């Protein structure tokens, strides 16, 4: 992937758990669209209303820790977030995000180097450029790139089952 | 090459030696789908175009978070689940029997050496019987329901050794909270935690369950115990050579080794609002308590209810404290009825609810409001987990919870 894109940064700190990304009381709403207004509400109730499609999240350590609720990456993707860059990710969130085609990037140095509202230029698998600084980023393992490139796990399975 | 326990389980499953970092495809022995995720999982399964499940006898569908339903659309999950079970011939459906993680071993499904996946992060619990188990999302579960397989990165292992005899009033909950405090909420991310030592050997399977259950709170992929005679008795299987093989090799490689001497451990709590914000109870006493919750897949078992009943016998709760007891399963509920535990708890002023997840995930009676304090025996004190984001949640052992029930405040002293 060498599709460079620009994105406005929303900044969050360490240990953003999935109860913050989407509280349990909204998990049974009928659709992910219905859940969107409540994303991040325990921490920043105003945030979901401000995020514009194409924006990105830059977080600290252990983003997505806690429950296995896949509504968390789904709602982040539904808000139009182009990618989440964190110092590190919790493993269930990591798998869920890839399976839903949400781009995650590990970049430990970025969090301290940016402020909310900064605009970054992201080239997946290569680099992030922001405030005149360049941060190198790694590509994901091949088996995960296969799922991402298929457009997520549902599409990969549909292909396996001869539907697409 | 010398191997850790989890490496041996994976090697047995795939039929060749594995090492940390390998990406392998495993055959799944057990799948667990809970009510919250059922509707979404089923939708994905059908969207993927599967026409049958890989094995209807290896899939457990368990309703627990929404039992009984508290919001108007909750029961949609049950109808979706029931229709799926009927259509694909699922043989293991639990509608009101208790928490999924309690039932997966209590009802005789997961055994030592098995590989299990579930749609809930506390699926790590089954490490208590020497199985590899971990949580995944509903899309990934949908693909397993169709194929019976999933990819896994073989994890590095952290060895946690606990030796000696735990002091009075110190439980396996205090041990795992201490470990989480030391490892931090992300300190074991992507890794397996192997628990060993003489303190562990002396623990009941129920106490071990409390620890494997919380392994995910420091980011671990799984937390696992070496199966022993107690494990086999609990699972109703013989302690034979196939089980005895399930132990790490001497000289296996660990990314990190933590050693604890049990005699040095003290009662602790996870303070608001992070699971790794661990403090000795002696340093936080005096905090006034509005509610105490005894339950969850962490500490809702018979031995937990016994610990509390032993302390409450002949005593009353503090007048202003709401004391909620939610047994982890119907089996636990019945046993506590039969042996008089429920009577003691009720006489002390407990509100005893039906088995299930209850207040742990904020989906049942007992939710709190700004500024209120709850002492909970569960596993998460995240913002907003049990009510508003300004509720103060302290995670504690059943013994420390019982002291708070009586004193109406946090204390480690005689009550």
How is this structure best described in words?
- The complex is a heterodimer of chains A (164) and B (415).
- With 164 residues, chain A is an alpha/beta fold.
- Chain A has helices at residues 18-21, 32-35, 47-50, 71-78, 91-99, 110-113, 142-150, 153-160, and strands spanning 5-11, 56-59, 83-86, 103-106, 119-123, 127-130, 133-136.
- Chain A has one domain: Aconitase, domain 4 (Alpha-Beta Barrel).
- Helices cover 30% and strands 20% of the residues of chain A.
- Chain A has a 7-stranded mixed sheet with strand order 4-3-2-1-5-6-7.
- In chain A, 47% of the residues are buried.
- The mean pLDDT of chain A is 94.
- Chain B is of the alpha/beta class.
- Chain B has helices spanning 5-14, 35-47, 76-88, 100-106, 138-147, 172-183, 198-202, 205-213, 229-235, 241-244, 281-284, 296-299, 302-312, 330-338, 341-347, 398-407, and strands at 23-27, 30-34, 59-62, 92-94, 115-118, 132-135, 149-153, 157-163, 192-196, 222-225, 256-261, 268-270, 278-280, 291-295, 322-326, 351-352, 373-376, 392-395.
- Chain B has a 5-stranded parallel sheet. Chain B has a 5-stranded parallel sheet with strand order 16-15-14-17-18. Chain B has a 4-stranded parallel sheet with strand order 10-9-8-11.
- The radius of gyration of chain B is 21 Å and the shape is globular.
- At the A-B interface, helix 5 and helix 8 of A face helix 2 and helix 5 of B.
């Amino acid at each position: 992937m060498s599709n460079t894109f620009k994105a406005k940064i929303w900044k969050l700190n360490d240990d953003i758990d999935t109860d913050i990304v989407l509280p349990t009381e909204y998990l049974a709403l009928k659709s992910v669209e219905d859940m969107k207004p409540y994303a991040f509400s325990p921490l920043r109730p105003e945030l979901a209303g401000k995020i514009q499609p194409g924006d990105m999240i830059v977080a600290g350590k252990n983003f997505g820790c806690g429950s296995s609720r896949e509504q968390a990456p789904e709602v982040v993707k539904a808000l139009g977030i182009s990618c989440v860059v964190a110092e590190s990710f919790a493993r269930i969130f990591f798998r869920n995000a890839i399976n839903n085609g949400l781009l995650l990037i590990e970049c430990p140095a970025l969090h301290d180097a940016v402020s909310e509202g900064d605009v970054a230029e992201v080239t997946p698998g290569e680099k992030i450029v922001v405030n005149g600084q360049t941060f190198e980023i790694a590509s994901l393992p091949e088996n995960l790139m296969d799922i991402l490139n298929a457009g997520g796990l549902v599409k990969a399975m549909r292909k396996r089952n001869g539907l697409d | 090459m010398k191997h850790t326990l989890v490496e041996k389980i994976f090697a047995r499953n795939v039929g060749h030696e594995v090492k940390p970092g390998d990406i392998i495809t495993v055959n799944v022995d057990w799948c667990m789908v809970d009510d919250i995720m059922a509707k979404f999982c089923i939708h994905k399964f059908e969207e993927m175009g599967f026409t049958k499940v890989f094995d209807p006898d290896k899939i457990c569908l368990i309703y627990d978070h929404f039992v009984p339903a508290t919001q108007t659309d909750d029961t949609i999950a049950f109808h979706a689940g029931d229709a799926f079970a009927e259509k694909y011939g699922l043989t293991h459906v639990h509608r009101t029997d208790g928490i999924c993680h309690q039932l997966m071993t209590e009802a005789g499904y997961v055994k030592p050496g098995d590989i299990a996946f579930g749609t809930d992060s506390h699926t790590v619990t089954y490490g208590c019987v020497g199985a590899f188990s971990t949580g995944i999302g509903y899309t990934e579960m949908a693909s397993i329901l169709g194929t019976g397989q999933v990819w896994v990165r073989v994890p590095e292992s952290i060895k946690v050794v606990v030796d000696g005899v735990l002091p009075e009033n110190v439980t396996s909950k205090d041990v795992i909270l201490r470990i989480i405090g030391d490892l931090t909420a992300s300190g074991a991310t992507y890794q397996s935690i192997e628990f060993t030592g003489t303190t562990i050997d002396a623990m009941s399977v129920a106490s071990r369950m409390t620890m494997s259950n919380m392994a995910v709170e420091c980011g671990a992929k799984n937390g696992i115990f070496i199966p022993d005679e107690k494990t086999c008795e609990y699972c109703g299987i013989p302690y034979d050579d196939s089980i005895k093989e399930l132990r790490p090799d001497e000289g296996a490689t660990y990314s990190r080794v933590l050693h604890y001497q049990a005699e040095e451990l003290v009662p602790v709590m996870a303070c608001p609002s992070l699971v790794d914000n661990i403090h000795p109870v002696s340093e936080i006493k005096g905090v006034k308590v509005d509610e105490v919750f005894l339950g969850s897949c962490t500490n809702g078992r018979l031995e937990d209810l016994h610990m509390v009943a032993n302390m409450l016998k002949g005593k009353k709760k503090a007048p202003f404290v709401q004391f909620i007891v939610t047994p982890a399963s119907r089996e636990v509920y019945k046993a506590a009825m039969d042996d008089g535990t429920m009577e003691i708890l009720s006489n002390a002023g407990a509100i005893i609810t039906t088995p299930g997840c209850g207040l742990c995930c904020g989906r049942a009676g007992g939710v709190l409001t700004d500024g209120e304090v709850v002492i909970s025996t569960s596993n998460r004190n995240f913002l907003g987990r049990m009510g508003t984001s300004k509720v103060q949640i302290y995670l504690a052992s059943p013994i420390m919870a019982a002291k708070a029930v009586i004193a109406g405040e946090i204390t480690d002293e005689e009550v």
